[in-house]
Design a protein that fits this description.
Length: about 150
């Protein structure tokens, strides 16, 4: 299948105070026209690694941003976004009331998008994503979050 063997391109990287390192990797998604896979790779200071993210069209319809949020055992939860180049700022509000800044890439001309990512608190799920565009518009939306089943 076309795109399966294509290498990914690192478009953003970060290192957190606790030693966690992360990167946003992007490559074509051959399952749809103009599709894109976007992944956040993260490695904890203990050496646990995970790669998670989203595929599909670069953006859906007239949306200005696509968002993925999730977690994997042994690594911090993360939020990942891809959006129009005019995004100037992105934040996420957690259920506990904390506002967290999302680190943004410059516009990646090859894809015509900006990418962003941020670690999330372990026990304070994301609720609302806010993006501010260059024309002054502010767009808000709920962040999808996987609910863990109750432990027995």
């Amino acid at each position: 299948m076309q795109g399966e063997d294509e290498p990914s391109q690192v478009v953003l990287e970060g290192r957190e105070p606790d030693g966690t390192t992360w990167s946003v990797d992007v490559r074509p998604d051959p399952t749809c026209d103009d599709g894109l896979y976007s992944f956040v790779r993260r490695t904890s200071v203990a050496g646990r690694s995970a790669r998670s993210g989203m595929g599909g069209p670069k953006l859906y319809g007239d949306d200005v941003v696509n968002v993925w949020a999730g977690r994997s055992d042994g690594t911090p939860p993360f939020i990942l976004i891809r959006g129009v180049p005019s995004i100037e700022e992105a934040t996420v509000l957690t259920s506990g009331g904390k506002t967290l800044q999302i680190t943004l890439s410059p516009e990646i001309e090859e894809f015509g998008l900006r990418f962003g990512a941020a670690p999330l608190p372990e026990d304070d799920p994301p609720e609302i994503l806010t993006v501010r565009l260059g024309d002054g518009r502010v767009i808000q939306g709920r962040v999808p979050w996987p609910r863990r089943p109750p432990t027995p």
